[in-house]
Every structure is written in structure tokens, then in C-alpha cells.
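Suppose a colleague, Dr. K., hands you the sequence of a protein chain of 356 amino acids and asks what its three-dimensional shape might be. Before reaching for any lab equipment, you can write down a predicted structure in C-alpha cell form. Begin with the sequence itself:
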Amino acid sequence: MDSPLRPVWLLSSLMLATSVGEARFLTPPAPTLLQQKGFELEEVLRVGSPDSLAVEDPYAFFGVTDAVLGDEGLLYVLDAGNGRIQVFDQGGSYVQTLGFGVGRTPGRFRRPTSIAWIGKDTLGVLDAGSLSITLIDVSSRELTRVPLPRNIVIAWSMTGLPDGGVALSAFSRSDSTRLHLLSRRLVRTKSLLRWPEGRPLAMLPNYGGARLQVAHDSTIFFAAANPGRLTGITIEGIVLFEQDLAELAPPIDSAVLFPGPAGTVSVRARRASAITGFAVLNPRLYMISLSVADELGSRIALIDRDHGVVSTSAVPDRVVVLGCAGSGQVVMLQDVSGEYVVVYRVVTDQDVCTRI
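The predicted structure, expressed as C-alpha cells, is then:
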């Protein structure tokens, strides 16, 4: 494979906890997490509190499933285990909490899996437990819960579309589709990607069966966790490409759901590779994190749409790529004796992570 990018991966395992006022985060390690000729990640921000499990501590995360950047560089972290979204400024200082914890009442979440901007000032929270999307006006902090279409029985991930609508990764029992386009009012307008007969729906802890992102050319990237496959599809339903990523990581044990008759499902065990997260850097270049069998760490791969895998690296800690954050930045989850959310600036001469 010919590529101008040659892998020179480096990882620093030395991470020192510090305290700055009320903000507790890690001193940026040196060198950066990943380095590659023509492509580097420069750490901008790291938040987390490994020494605290108190719910009252805004830096104590328990099961982060997603994170996005907003206006003025604010970082929104979906702390799923605590049923809340924690907001931090560019310096890592705590700003506010959105959501009221775990539960069934309005403003609470049962199993939130992803967050995405739906329009300029509205943050959407996909709750797989209640099969709903909660719309949060970040200015007024007003919360509105909207149920998903009734034929959807499993939901994994969502992302905002340029027209203010939503792309939703979910399984519909009526037509076995797995990608749904919703309008601004969250009414389903189109269903895409019918689930192949006999192929399992992966249910991986915290990260769901698939993740979605939209590139600035409006291509929807659909990453199926198990088996590992990345699909690029237009909003009109035209499949642009499919890449099998199963060879990037050895098999792992996981529980999966198989569609059955009349919308029922059956649980089986199988061994397959698993994508835990990804970021569409641009329509041709993307970064993917994968789980690794029989290892405590992860693998991170840089993939070119035309050339395939540019490089792959084993990382000793659990690292999950949560996605692009706009303005040339990516967000990752790192689990090093505790959960940390890290924002990296992508240093490259390519146009990457342009906000839609």
C-alpha cells in the first residue's frame, strides 16, 4: 500500500494528577498520545477525577459514552452512569450540569448513549433505555423529551444533519432497517440500510452496536461495531463505499442480538472484532478505536478511504475515539485508573474535522 503517511506511534503512560482551583484534570503528558509523520495529535484539554467516586464531584465520571464541543470551546461530556451532562470551559473548569440523574422522570436518563447538536443551540441526548431523544436548550436549560418512532426497538447512536435533522442508528422491527433520518421535529422521514438476514446486532457495553458521524460533504458514516464495518452513505440512501474492518483487531467475546420472527430477538455468543469509536477527519481520512482480545488496552487505526489502513497501533490503556469536535479537534475517552475525556488538536496540513 502506497501512502505518504508512515507510522511513528508514541504513547506516554506518565499522567500526573493536578488541581487548579476547583478544576481537577491531568497535566498534559509528553509526548502527545499519538504521533505520525504528517499527522500529530496535540493535547488541548483533559478532565477527570480518578480519586473520587462521589456523585457530587462534577469531575467524577462513571461510564462516559460521548462528548462534544460547543460554542466558545465548551466541552459537553455525557456521563451516562450518573445520568447527566457535565459542561467544562476551555481551561477545564466546571461550568454546569444538564440533566437530573438516572431515572424515568422528565430530565432524567435511563441509558443515554450519545449526544449531538441538533441546530445551533439545541443538544440532543439519545436515551436507549427509554427509546427517546431529550432536547436541551443550552441557553435556557429547558429539557423536552421526544419518544422515538414506535417501531424502533433498539437504539445506539445519533448525529446531527446539516438541515437540522438527525441521523439515528437504530433497529426497526417493522422493516429491519438500521439507519433512520429524522426531521427537526424528530419525525422519521426515511429508513436506510436494511439489516442483512442472519447478521447480528451487536450490543457492546456503553458503546452500542454502531456509531454515526456526518462529514462536511453530508456523507453519513455508519460504523457497525460487530462485525467491524464502515459504510459511507448519502442522505438519499446511495451507498458510496463499504470497508470491512474485522481484520484490524483479533476476535473478542461479546453478546449479540439476532433479529427473529415478528420483531423478536435471540441472544447468542460469538467472537468478533469490535469498533468502539471513530472520528471522520475528512471524507477520505478517519481514525478508529477498537477493542483488543486478551489485552487490557485498545488499538487505534488511521484509515484512508482510497488506500485502506494507513497504520495501526496498540495502546496499553482503554482509549475510545468519540469523534470530531469541529475546528480541527477530536475528542477521546481514556481509561487510566479512572475515566478522562481528552480533547486533541489535529496537527496536519490536511483539512480535518470541519464542523458541519
